[in-house]
Amino acid sequence: MKYFIFIAFISICLCSCSQSSHEADDQLEKIPTLTLVDSMQIDRLVVPALLDYSFDSQYFLFFDFQSDELILTDSSGTIIRTANRSGDGPDTYKSSYFTACRFVGNEQIIIETYTGNYLYDLQFDLIESNPSHITIMTRMMGDTQGFLVENDYQFRFGYLESDLDKIRMENRIRMDEYDFLKVSNFRGDVLFSSRVPASVNYIQKPGDYIGYDPIAKIQGDRIALQFMLTPMIYTYSYPELVLKDSLFLDPGPDFKPIQPAPEQENFGIFFEELRGSRYKDFIYSNDFLLTWYLKATPDEEVDALDPRVVGDEKYMSIEKKYKKHVYQIFKGKEKIWEGEWPIKLMTKKDLLYSVNAKPGEDGNEVERDVQTFYFYELK
């Protein structure tokens, strides 16, 4: 497939060349292709964020961050209804933003905010609201991947408000001696809990980081967690949260671990994130594991930036230049490929997708009246 790059070594010895050719062929057979399997179009002028889809895959839930509208579509992308439920007023979630938004089964939607959780029907009418017993710990607004809803359980990466004194150390949260991994019922009762693995980056080197919450994927009676700063995937029993296994992702030289931000630097976490690497996502597809991380930025490029300013033109140009996606494919625990693809992939539960661009295309070339989501599998 043209999106994979392979290197063939040519030997003067004919026998050696033949042997190398066979080895290359064997390796080629192991590597799956990124295969387009479906697509949907949504009639919107801006790209909405895919938040979730129902358990029967009949409904998809999006959010337009420009208009603050929740968007419900069918499986073809046809819009069924939209609603703005931000701010104050009847049927709102009493906030200008939310932490996560998920389907509950096929007929309800739960929105998690710092003020509580809000349960809606598919008309976006509020059914009930309740205080959040477990506060989700994240710096990601709108769609943290550390909150999952499945069957009778909810998984959260967070803490009980009553436990705040136990985990706070001066101006920092202690991450090593508290069960941040929690499974609760819908009443908010904690049923199972567990600690962050001791090998995670921010446990080994305590300090202030860009993020602490994991990317989480449920697979039957297992839940896989990827802490974005650490090149590992940890597998727990679900819902019991007993650590069962781990996989070292063995990234290449483009990966540089993020260090804790220097004290006294207001924007230190952003510059350390720019300097280092973090994992973006992962997904299981047809017995393969696909994951990817962002390349590091040379120290001299980061050091040349103004440490008092984040997001200016120079900062963004450096980010665009260096923070490229590096993809990895695993079969079982064997890494069978690592490299770059000319595509920006995203996931939502079991879906692997891109927006407005297939491999090799530029999704920003023209303005669009509709937004296209392309779905893929590894085959």
TrEMBL record:
Assigned keywords, A-Z: Signal
Superkingdom classification of source: Bacteria
Signal peptide, first to last residue: 1-23
Name the record gives this protein: DUF4221 domain-containing protein
